[in-house]
Amino acid sequence: MLTGDHPSTAEAIAKEVGIIPTNRASLPHSVATSLVKAASEFDAMTDDEIDALPTLPLVIARCAPSTKTRMIAALHRRRAFCAMTGDGVNDAPSLQAADVGIAMGGLGGVAAD
């Protein structure tokens, strides 16, 4: 889940919809601490540092368009499939980079293409 929401809001939503577990105590520390990141933290990492993470973050909050495309690239380097939804023209780069891109909210133009 890549979102512009505040980290605490993003984490609460991710727990509510089952993206991340409500109780991370049973997870290894390295995994538990990598599940949710602020975009500023993710953006500061090199590709090598991202690739060295045991698990990619499941939630990144306060994302810019470039954060989203970097995550898609990281998923693709791991041979993972990626689907994105977006509701603004700023989502067009990630919608195009994803394996499946779904434009929502009556978008037209670049995002819908």
Explain this structure.
It is globular, with a radius of gyration of 14 Å. It is of the alpha/beta class and 113 residues long. β3, α6 and β4 (100-103) form a beta-alpha-beta unit. The chain has helices at 7-16, 29-32, 39-44, 47-52, 65-77, 92-97, 109-112; strands at residues 36-38, 59-61, 83-86, 100-103. The strands form 2 sheets. A two-stranded parallel sheet has the order 1-2. A two-stranded parallel ribbon has the order 3-4. Helices cover 43% and strands 12% of the residues.
Sequence of strands across the biggest β-sheet: 1-2
How many helix segments? 7
* Share of helical residues: 40-55%
Radius of gyration: 14 Å
Mean pLDDT: 90
β-strand number: 4
In terms of DSSP E residues, the strand content is 5-15%
Shape: globular
Broad structural category: alpha/beta
Query: Order of helices and strands, N to C?
Result: HHEHHEHEHEH
First and last CA, distance: 22 Å
Sheet of most strands = 2 strands, parallel
In the predicted model, the low-confidence regions spanning at least 5 consecutive residues are none
